[in-house]
Amino acid sequence: MRTLDLTPLYRSAVGFDRLAGLLENAARTGETTGWPPYNIETTGENAYRIEIAVAGFKPEELNLEVKENLLTVTGKKAANDDAARKYLHRGLAERDFERRFQLADYVVVTEASLDNGLLAISLKRELPEALKPRSIPIGTAKPLIEGEKTAA
Questions:
Q1: C-alpha to C-alpha distance for 150 and 83, rounded to whole angstroms
Q2: How far is residue 99's CA from residue 35's CA, in Å, rounded to a whole number?
Q3: Mapping DSSP to helix (H, G, I), strand (E, B) and coil, where does residue 60 land?
Q4: Average pLDDT of the chain to the nearest whole number
């Protein structure tokens, strides 16, 4: 695996250390397991959905947590009494998992639902009022001395 050298970025850019850290972390700890599989899609200009295949998991066996722009989805399978069952083939992966998704600033989880073995997590970018574009009214010049008109 090739390492990513971000030294030039650190020398010439100010305030991008978080982005550089994310890139280094992604290059260093790329997830080697593809389980459980997932999709990330955009559902609107500022709306997203993550779908994770969690067949066999009940809602109480799944946990979603958001902390410091990191969404963590964990599944802990309750113990089954497999001693009474005799499998000829066991291909269903009923193992615990943890998936992490780095969220951009102001992206929040709005809803999560489990249907037909798919955990759907809806996300939305919600900019604070201070960051939204706003129109600035343009005033006219005021007289220099109150009560007097300016010379035309």
A1: 97
A2: 9
A3: helix
A4: 82
What is the pLDDT, as a whole number, of residue 42?
Answer: 94
The helix or strand, by DSSP H or E, that contains position 9, with its residue range, turns out to be: helix 7-12
Tell me the three state secondary structure of residue 7.
helix
Distances (CA, A) of 89 to 35, 54, 73, 80, 147: 19, 20, 28, 17, 95
Lowest-confidence region among 36-45, 70-79, 85-94: 85-94
**DSSP string over 11-39:** HH-SS-HHHHHHHHHHHHS------S-EE
Residue 135 forms beta bridges with which residues? none
- For residue 142, being part of any structural domain is answered with no
Whether residues 73 and 124 share a domain: the answer is: yes
Which of 16-30, 57-71, 101-115 shows the lowest mean pLDDT across its residues?
Answer: 16-30
- In terms of phi and psi (left: phi > 0; alpha: psi -120 to 50; beta: otherwise), the region of 69 is left
DSSP state of 51: E
Instruction: Record the pTM.
Output: 0.68
Cβ-Cβ contacts under 8 Å for 17 (sequence gap 6 or more)? 10
Tell me, yes or no, whether 137 lies in a domain.
no
